[in-house]
Structure formats: C-alpha cells, structure tokens
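Supplementary Note 2. Why include the ligand at all?

Several targets in our set were suspected to adopt different conformations when bound, so apo predictions alone were not considered sufficient. For every target with a known small-molecule partner we therefore ran a joint prediction. The input for pyridoxal-5'-phosphate is given below.
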Amino acid sequence: MPLDDFRRYGHQLVDWVADYLATVERRPVLATVAPGDVRAGLPARAPDRPESFEAVLADLDRVILPGITHWQHPGWFAYFPANSSPESILGELVSAGLGVQGMLWSTSPAATEVENLVLDWLVDLLGLPSSWRIDTGPGGGVLQMSASDSTHTAMVVARERAVRAGAEIGRLVVYSSSQAHSSVEKGARVAGFGHVRAIAVDEVHAMDPLVLAHAVQRDRDDGLVPCAVVSTMGTTGTTAVDPVRSVAGVAQAHGIWHHVDAAYAGTAMICPELRHLQDGVELVDSYAFNPHKWMFTNFDCSAFWVADRRELISTLSVLPPYLREAASQSDVAVDYRDWHVPLGRRFRSLKLMFVLRSYGAEGIRHHVREHIRLARGLSERLAGDPRFALVAPVPFGLVCFRHVDGDDATRALVAAVNATGRVHLTASELPDGTTFVRVSVGQTGTVQRHVDALWALLDSLAG
Ligand SMILES: *Cc1c(COP(=O)(O)O)cnc(C)c1O
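The joint prediction is reproduced in token form.
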C-alpha cells in the first residue's frame, strides 16, 4: 500500500473506530449471527489476486460488526470488563506502526525502558513494595500477555527453586483457594505439577488460612513438598479477597513461593482507601494484575512483578549465540526475553504510558471510585427488595445476587434481561451449587443511567 493511501485509509479507520465507540450503545450487546455466518460471509479461499482495500473495508460493516460481541458497550456487565480508551487505542496504533521486537534492550531500547518505567510507576501508584521497583530494588516488573501467563511464569520459577533445592518434581504441591481462577490449575499443570490442592473457603468465599496450614502439614507428613501457593485478591466468581498476610505466614514458615493473582482488582489499589485489602503484599514473592481489565488499557496487558528478579531470570534465561549482544551483558540493561516464556515481544508499555499520563492517577482513581459507587448503589437497591438476596460483599465493582425463588428463577431472570439486548450479565455458581447473577460495573462508558436502566430491567423482569 502506498503511504499516501495508508494515510487516507488510516484517517478513515480512526473515524470508523470513533463512530463505533460513539454509537456502540445503540447496538444489541451480543453478536447477532448464527455459528458459521461470519465465515460464510467472507471469501472461502485466500484471494490469489489483490483485492481493493475498499472491498476489504466494506466487510467490516457487512460481516465483522454483526459478529461482534460488544465488550465496549456501556451495558456490558458480564464477566469482568475489558475496558479501553482512546489513548490506549492510539498507543496500540503507534506500537504497530513502530513494529519493533523488544526482546533485548538493544533490539529497541525505548521498548524496554518505557516498560521499566511504567511498571515502576505502577508500584508506587498501587502501594506495592518499593523494593519491586526495577530501578532501585531487587525486584522488578514485566508486561505479559495475560494473567494466565503471569501465574504460569510464577509456577515455573517456584518449581525451579524447589528442584534446585533438591526436591523431586513429582512430589511438588501447589495450593490455591477453591475459588481461584482456572488459570492457576492450568498454569500449575503446564509447569509440570502433579498435585494441585483447592483449599476450602470461609463464608465470604476467601481462602481459610487454617485449612491451608493443615493441608501443607499433611502433605509434608506424607513426604510431599509444598512448593507454591496462589492468593487471589478479587476472585473471579465473587471478588473475594484471600487474607494475603495470613497466607504469607504459612508460606514463609514452609519456604513456599507465594504468588498473588489480582487480575481484576489490582487496578482498585490505586485508591488508598482500598489498600487494606492487599495487606501483607510486601511478604509475597510475585504479583500480577491486568491493566487490560479495569485500567482503560485494551487487551493485552498484564503486569507481573517479582520480589527478587534474579530467581526469575536464572530460571528463564537461555543464551543462544545469535542473542549475545554486548549491551545486554551489562547490569544496567534489562533483557525482557529472560522474564517470560516467549522470545519476541510487542511494545505493550506504550499504550499503558499513554493511559497513565493522560488520565493521571487522579483520573483513574475517579473512574474506579465511580464504578464502585455505582456497584454499591445497585447492591443497596437489590438488598432493599425482598425478591433478591446478595450472596457476597461488594468490595469492588462486582455485585453478586440471586433471586429468592431459587436457581431456576435466577437463570430465567438473567436470560430475560440479556434477551433485551440492552445489557449483558453472566450467571455463575457458588461453592454450594447455588446459581447467582454477576453484575460487573467497569466499562469505560458506563455511568449512572446505564445502571439505572439495568435496575429497571431487573425490577420489571424479576416477577
Ligand atoms: C480474569 C482473571 C484471570 C485470567 O486473566 P487472563 O489475563 O485472561 O489470563 C486470572 N485470575 C483472575 C482472578 C481473573 O479474574
């Protein structure tokens, strides 16, 4: 494509994205296609001859948009948010334009140094231990694709530490609460752990540290080797908060690697009044949260820190001759290829820097507090109505409730509300099998009137 055409189509596509974001609210939240429709609407074989770019773009409206589930819709209350912002989208555009591979400092110094810097900023913004700053501390942060990758990486480092200390891999055990995200079990399995224990939770769905301590002791008595524990700050089901300090006590007593999965709720730590929820975080070995969930930064962007970067690097560093670069041998330069599984890496930190600088900490705090205020307002309305019962506290932007008439009524309510196309909710199940509704408030464009509209639907459809 000649660059003059790129300029023209580029302007046209920025307009297209802006129009999309300005009007997404008027679309039904869910995709309107049947399975196979999208594929059938596009060429069956890759074209031999070049198509005009106009023809390619025409399919955006004709085929792609009907097949989109609108995560950026302000009526998106399902799962967790995957929110975004114009600043983030522009950062993504520049990153694609530069097209660098940032695996070594020398393969694009700015990609590495901006990432070092924004992860150090986040340490301060989220009240994390200053020793995790890469510029001064023994720790350091890296951007990964997903929280699943971060957890998997933590598991691999924990495994290596135990194996180097002489443990047999088949005897290593990983622990998390029964409410931990499925990526913990998956990461542990991929890392080669044969024993993964789901620890029972208390009445607010948080890990019970006494049950953990007993499980660890029992495994040791049985000749197994407790190796890693994952605390969740904000579980996916109900945003329960595991007691990080108590879990750290068990982990430290037994030399167990302690990873904190704060994928969703980590963003909320930008509000000092919520930081008591991560009390004890200075005692853990690694921590991850996803700016791509609630920090206005489009997927993919997961921030991962370790308290001691040497353990991470010594686990993941391999040095083929074609990667031996003079600059990288120095202590000053960070080579991020040694901080995660992939070699090649995108310039992900640019979009995060665009967001952090243009919102400012105050801006992000404002929006996060607003989402939490909206969620609490909804939870008060639900609590005040005899047809509904809350099933979990509301520490962040997630409201969990059920219909008092039982599971069938709860499922019917979710189906009826979603069928309107104006909002989208997800149902889930408590540990005892009770069905409940999750309402997650966190989309960039979600304001009071969207939550009011949701309440009106719940009120009129609950029977
Ligand atoms: C969403 C979520 C994950 C998975 O995040 P990915 O970035 O999609 O891998 C992990 N843990 C928790 C607690 C989550 O809420």
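The chain has 14 helices and eleven strands. The chain has three domains: 3-73, 100-346, 362-461. Comparable summaries for the other entries are listed in the accompanying table.
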